[in-house]
Amino acid sequence: MRRIQIFSALIATTLVPFLAGVCHGMDVRVVDINPVTKEAGAYPTLVLSGEILTGDYERLLGYAIENNLDLHAMSITLATPGGDISEALKIGQLLKSIYATVDVGPVTGPCASACFILYASAVNRSATAGTVGIHRPYLSKERFQNLSPSQAEKLETNALLAAEDYLHKLRVPSSLVDVMFENASSEIHWLTDDELQALGENPAWYEEFLIARCNLNKEARPYYLAHPDDKVVFAKLMEVYGCGKRLTEQEAVSNFEAAKEGYVRQLSPGDAQRLTHAADSHDKVYAALNTDIPNWKQINTSKAFLAWLDDGDQAGANGISTKSLLSNAFEANQKAVVVSIFKAYLRQHSGIADTASAPTPPQLGTSAVSTSTDRWVTFADISENSGGLNTHATWYIDRNSLQKKGSEFSADVRVTATNDGGLPQLRNTISLTRWSVNCSGRSYWDHGGTTAYRDNGQWIPSPYPASDKPVAATPSNKRATQLIEGICTAVYGP
Known about the structure:
By secondary structure, the protein is of the alpha+beta class. It has 16 helices and 17 strands. It is globular and about 80 Å long.
């Protein structure tokens, strides 16, 4: 089959899973989450979620083989509540051997119990307070089938000793290990900022390695956290990250290949052949695209699609551009990554173009919170005059994207706006963006997305910039006050 050049914008406005692994335990899937911002958006990552059960180590390797995934090069998001400690040890040792990068984010959910083994095993790790939890690990119930009481005691004792010894070898602070094994499996301790800092974003040995080989400045990280708009410092941190990836690549690839070969050797000859040849041809990628995205060829040649490709802001954390990312995935027959990129673009592009799916705006001058459709809910209806341009905008929450955590939540937001002045093509616009909102703190953060205006009967997309800092509701900022009151009331009620 003639090779078709594939391009992608890799822009997503919602966190939607793609091509999930067989879900009889831990769920393995490629999604679109930016590994730096932890927000749904601009970079494919591997998400591990669901309970860890016996066989999940092999399931992870099988998924990686079938989709030609390089786990060393990918960011891995951990969102599992834990599970079988012995299986977690196997997965953790794999992540350690490939010098993995992991994160725990507010969008995908917490990492708890045995998942902490996976988190501690990585050389690059990132989480926020309250997203990583620890308690006494346990074994899955099926391991105790047909065991006598003494055999069960021996099995569990050995498993817990192995986990404790492994954590000490990783140089996890003893205080955290003690808390982990003292808390019953029915209780949980969520790590604070101080505890996460004590554990570190890198193991101690790897941090020293980066200092010696990649010129890591330990003061740069806390400085950047206090000054997130400093692009120079951010670029230096990314250089260090990329340097570490390059220096560990050879060993990581060798170790990962050995793990995959060990898994394949235990399969029957027929299963091994089907697995290793699952992605040997571009035909497999085309088949996946034809199944999941029937109109992918039209998308591939559209001007809007190519315009997204040229967006320089879509480079990933390791410096790979969107164009290179998709091209590399296609050449490597990574069908899960290719499909996820196309779906990500299609979601946002279709959301803008399909004006028929937008709910009917309420009457002008109202401030309504009403159910407009099964999917969208109105949360604000604002008219304002700025620079002589009268604008009326109606704002909507996409229920399918809503993620709550206490008084904070994130959601995809749609804005339809009309103007009675200015350029004709700007009199009707639609925007899709993602917000994080703190209702108790009365502030929101707009993470950016896409806007589109009407031109000769077609919707023309362009980037929608993110806010550079949280926007607070203050007496002088009536617009922010209206928006926050409207969206918080829509989500949590009056």
